[in-house]
Design goal:
It is a single chain. The two termini are 52 Å apart. Helix 12 links the parallel strand 20 and strand 21. The chain folds into four domains: 97 residues, GIY-YIG endonuclease, CATH 3.40.1440; 180 residues, P-loop containing nucleotide triphosphate hydrolases (Rossmann fold, 3-Layer(aba) Sandwich), CATH 3.40.50; 182 residues, Rossmann fold (3-Layer(aba) Sandwich); 89 residues, Alpha-Beta Plaits (2-Layer Sandwich), CATH 3.30.70.600. The model has no long low-confidence stretch (mean pLDDT 91). The protein is globular. Strands 8-9-7-10-11-6-12 form a seven-stranded parallel beta sheet, with helices on both faces. The protein has a six-stranded parallel beta sheet with strand order 13-23-22-14-21-20, sandwiched between helices. 30% of the residues lie in helices and 25% in strands. Helix 16 crosses helix 17. The chain is an alpha/beta fold and 663 residues long.
Length: 663
Amino acid sequence: MKYASVIVDNNTNATDELYTYSCGDDVRVGQKVKVPFTRTNRAVDGYVAALSDAPPEGIKHIKAVLGTDGDICLGEEPMATALWMRGRYMCRYIEAVKCFLPVSAEAKRRTKDPFAGLSDERTQAKTLNPDQLKAFESIAEAVDGRRGGMFLLLGVTGSGKTEVYLQAMAKCLEQGRQGIVLVPEIALTPQTVSRFVSRFGRENVAILHSRLTPAQRAAEYARINSGKVKLAVGARSAVFAPFSDIGLVIVDEEHESSYKSDKSPKYDAIEVAAKRAMAHSAVLVLGSATPSVSDCYRSETGVFRRLELRQRYNATPLPKVRLVDMRAEIRAGNRSLFSAPLCEAIGSELAKGKQAILFLNRRGYSSHVSCRECGYTVRCPECGIAMVYHKDEDALVCHYCGRRQPLAKQCPECGSRIFGRFGAGTQQVEEKARELFPNASIERMDLDSVRKKGSLEAILSRFASGKTDILIGTQLVAKGLDFANVGLVGIISADVSLNIPDYRSAERTFQLVTQAAGRAGRGDEQGSVIIQTYAPEHPALTAAAAQDYAAFYAREIQMRKLVGYPPYADLFQIVLSSPDEAENAAACAACRAELEKRLPQGCVVLGPSKAPINKAGGAFRHQIVIKSPAGSRRAVCAAINEIKRSRPQEPLMTVDINPFSML
């Protein structure tokens, strides 16, 4: 007889522990089982976390496993990774386990093809330039050696990182091993996915992402489990693909915040990828033109081996970049969204038969509605953040919870009719562009314009074929687009992300501007970029204009060291939320007092304070931030867990370690 430590499928703190059951020799680690639970011995699902030959000391009256589900077994490595996630991200056991399961196993009916719209045309490997060849050979040697290894591939935009990925993956698959490719958001990077499908064939590739139906996801998992496919491509959840012999994991655009989950478990897909790669002695490759400051630091300290692609694949120079000071435009009498240099540049490119991309990372028409008499700003009653005016709906919309309400004709506070819309969004940029360039074909690509299924692909298809002259959008247009005829990229307001209350705001601004600029001049002719800003002297913007990652990194890493931010420390964000604001504030203050008793020396506690988004879903939010010096992470986790176990369920307490958003 054996004894199984079982995680029961009951997502509450009260049952977040391992339960011991006796079982037969046919039960395996990771297997789904039925076990009797509670005093009534109700049969519930569970998952075997570990097996032993003897029960834990002091346990009597051990119940037996009722049965097994032969179709579902995570396996030893996925279960070990789930247990590691539970400790690292302070989530519940069952939350970590369910990351490795398809959303639903019910879906054995016929499903729609997740490859619909992707090219069937097979492509051949391209000749690599010297930088690419050096990078490929380093990765291939590590794959051949089966000893693992972690690489940071730093390549300027258009340098051919994808071709290096493709040839490295071919090397992995030739060995009979399996591979995973992560992209920031599957719906936004169809070109990257198409390249892998075209190179390896759709019959050899599984696609995994959140837009799959439960039926589609179950079908893709079944293809993997049957051994029919050796390669999975997808967004962050693809890191959990049920492979048993992983040889290579590739993370494209590794700097993107979408690799960090914002729901429990709040895992970092790159950390999970590294954990799984180490377990399989696999190679991990992180690629970006603008890698995260933390990962670049790790490449300096030897955690990652850095490989560099310093020039574009086709040897076309990087685009010419010009910073335009919008303060000078206003002094010259131009209050338009479009500076004179940008208008001139767009007209010039259109005259040459070239296309332009205009980037503004703010959707809607106006960013907020305010009263000029009393200063009142319309805020969402549920979330407390400024509501955005959408002209096509003639309504105010909360971009956090989706609430909609009509626009008032006068100020609700003072009754003034000097009640106007301020700040610009992509809808207003589109309107102004149509006024300035009436003969141009113009389209907008943001979350509002791509809601209908297939609309994103249709917009990109029209732009690729040259039917669209000007494409306007949010960060959707800054990610992964590769069109040879784009001669100009205009960044309408580079300041939007600089003003976010987050220590990463400069890093995100540099990344967004650099990535957006990289869409220009990807053909045979050098492109141009115009960056409009009210802060042309800001170091993040001057570095982006010079396309000088090294200069940006050198300054940013010094600042991080000075103030104790990652990678020199871990940040723990503890958020308490409750419908009662006073009760929530008091609970947060009590939580800080308990933390100060338990935290190790060297930790810095900030707060309690109101969260930047002070209200969400009808609940008020207060937060505490802990700066945990290197080496103290486990002790801080232990202290927080002690508090979580001893406190009541309300107010709700959530913990995020190294969050990508402090809002």
